[in-house]
Amino acid sequence: MANEEDAVLRSERWVGGLNVSGLLHRASLRAGGAREAGGGKPIVGICNSWSELVHCNVHLRATAHAVKRGVLEAGGVPVEFPTISLSENLMKPTAMLYRNLMAMDVEEMIRSHPLDAVVLLGSCDKTVPAQLMGAISAGVPAIMLTGGPSDPAHFRGRELGVGTDLWHYTDDVRAGRMSMEDYAELEAALIPTHGHCNEMGTAATMASLCEALGIALPGTALLPAVDAARADAAIRTGARAVELARDGIAPRALLSAAALDNAIAVLMAIGGSTNAVVHLLALAGRLGIELPLERFAAISARTPLLVNARPSGEYLTDAVHRAGGIPAVMAELGDLLDREAPTVTGRSLAAELAGRGTLDDAVIARRERPFEPRGAITTLRGNLAPRGAVIKRSAASPELLAHRGPAVVFDGIEDLLARFDDPELPVSADSVLVLRGVGPRGAPGMPEWGMLPIPSRLLRAGVTDMVRISDARMSGTAYGTVVLHAAPEAAVGGPLALVRDGDPIVLDVDAGLIALDVPDDVLAARSPAPVAPAATGRRGYTQLYQRHVLQADQGCDFDFLLPASEDGDPTVPPGLFDGWVAGW
Predict the structure, then answer these.
(1) How many CA atoms lie within 13 A of 59 on its CB side?
(2) What count of other Cβ atoms lies within 10 Å of the Cβ of residue 335?
(3) For residues 3, 4, 7 and 12, what is the CA-based torsion angle, rounded to 10 degrees?
């Protein structure tokens, strides 16, 4: 059986015993195809979020085969297992409602099985942070491999991004500039291959941040989903997982405060998704690391925008990959990163970035000549969001970054859908559209409803952007002068609930301000009693979510999952029959 050196493997608690329990565990793994389990070789789990309901992840079944090859070549025993998978496009009301459920699924699957390391296979927006959250709490060595972006679509001679261009064309239909027949033609062209969105949306952002955090192999984030090099990346990832198992390097050894700062800097430099703010806050919570929103603003202020990708710029992620990918971005950031941070390769970030740099400064700018001197995202505070809000300034209209206008208020998504195109709606280009009651508890799940539609009569008049505010989120592929994640949300008594039609709202992005310009005594007279986080008549998981979800500034994780345990891997209890054949 296992020699003395191999006895440190976690799986030996299951398969190393010369007794009935050890026999039963080994026999069970053998029956599943893991014939060498119990031979002192690391058992590497392949946590696969493959699903035919998630086109971003539908190719991960084949990816898992390449990971297995890497594990076998490195002397490990691969075992693949499924978890739930989150479809950004198909799950209603929002995939975000189920991110924490998937994180719990991942954590408990890892924790309860004889795994020495795990390869996390994810691609779509919420699968990646869910897997990272679960792996952190499980405490077993882990490495991330994302699925890569889809190939660009082409429509009437133009290269398309999946989401960003869809929003543009949808506005064209509503404004009468595009026919429904043309819109149907767009549908057939929009998503030509598997893989996640090919703009710098949430999926590409989270994949990029995995490299910045040091938990994915360098250069793998933006490698296209259909590229043959993905198989090589999977093989190398599987092989590295075996080494992580032998070295006992768990996520906590990599994901430090410095690693989170590096991820925030990369987020700002790539023009990444505002959703990443919520996910990084959730990771920090699992790690027990304090990460205030002001940290995002401070890092953004010193970090230039280096990547010219939609929705903040011109190109898609395949161009960013060809220009050097995330390693090139990090190399250009230079001393704005903690270059001594460890990575999953076993080498420092500095060692991994040696010799890297941009290969096309029209796509990835050099630090001395950035596209913008400040980062893509910043945070706001004020009497409308005392615990903070976020805005993606790189995708906003410069002329609206300092704005004062009257509020037009919508109470929930049904009210918005019923009235936003009403010709009698008292709205102008200067108005500030407010959507409330759509935060973590109110919606529930904080859907991506924050990019409120511009009323069609304004679209027809040539208005392309307005200031919009909500306690919801926005797609990473979206754009506009949109204030998001207002905390606390209206449904728990946040001040967004106090706004009335016509109230003047002040936005000053440079000053970090979002405020209702109404006297304090007037606001005090309006103050409603906080809405209790009670169930809304739904059953099961949704009720659990509404009772326990934290606010946006805390990452929308569950209160009972924080703080993370210092030892996320409890001792495996002895089997009932362990003593029956001791000395066998």
Answers:
(1) 23
(2) 7
(3) 40
pLDDT of residue 573: 52
What is the CATH classification number for the domain harbouring 516? 3.50.30.80
CA dist 515 and 509 (Å) reads 11
In a domain, 56, yes or no: no
Burial call 117-145: b when 16+ CB within 10 Å, e when fewer: bbbbbbbbbbbbbbbbbbbbbbbbbbbbb
Provide the b/e sequence for 376-414 (b: ≥16 CB within 10 Å): bbbbbbbbbbebbbbbbbbbbeeebbebebebbbbbbbe
Does residue 32 fall inside a structural domain? no
**With 80 as the cut, is the pLDDT of residue 530 above it?**
no
Look at residue 434 and tell me if it is in a domain. yes
Q: What is the pTM of this model?
A: 0.94
Cα torsion 387, 391, 393, 394: sign = positive
Number of alpha helices (DSSP H) and beta strands (DSSP E) in the chain: 19, 14
Residue 271 is assigned to a structural domain of this protein: no
Structural domain for 176, as ranges: 153-189
> Quick one: average pLDDT of 68-74?
98
Cα–Cα distance measured from residue 459 to residue 453, given in angstroms and rounded to the nearest whole number: 10
